[in-house]
Amino acid sequence: MSFQKDRMLIIPAVDIKNRKCVQLVQGKPGTEQVVIDDPASVAEKWESLGAETIHVVDLDGALGSDKNTDILEEIVGRVSVPLQVGGGIRDSDYAGKLLEMGFERIIIGTMAIEKPGTVKELAEEYGSEHIMVSLDSRDSRVVIKGWTEKVPFTPVELAGRLQEEGAGSILFTNVDFEGLLKGFDVKPVLELVESIEIPVVYSGGVSSIKDIELLSGTGVAGVVIGSAIYRKKIDFQEALRYQDPGIRDE
Question: Is 15 a catalytic residue?
Fold first, then answer.
């Protein structure tokens, strides 16, 4: 599914670690707050509740461990809505394998920033709409390698370059707020949306319906929600009302 103007997709997250669906605090191993067996069944649940797109992250891959490729394949086989996937995509071959497996979008971060030519290469081969670049921000600087290493650029500085290289969309995660369920700072989101023409999806700190309402006025094309829906801070189906302006205004 392509992102549509004037719609803000509500995208549930399915993060995989040690073969289970988990939610971490600020991406740190050992901070698991949610642990559920069978990630594919979790993805099926969100589809049954009305998700139009699901966000899948291989945390083991992101942190340099063995990839959960078999689980990713199982999710593709059991879910019919479009899926976007990230985590541990460090080379073009694996990126291509995931797209050929059936994922709608791959999310690349470290590779896109260290080797921006790969964005152009993948966009030319598979189409920009299938290439999402992850810009993860801590203290207003982009972090890579599972949020463990900071680079000397802001998200806005890198986003323009990546758009030129062929990125079809940006996933912006504010790591300062990720997993804390304490809200987020909207200013960096607005700055990023206004600086580029390609869609921006936001993630990090979304903890209430008010947060979703706030994001609906920023121009983001989607919002990824993790801990808040697993810990029942946000009712997922209530959140879906914010996908379409006409529906939420009723």
Answer: yes
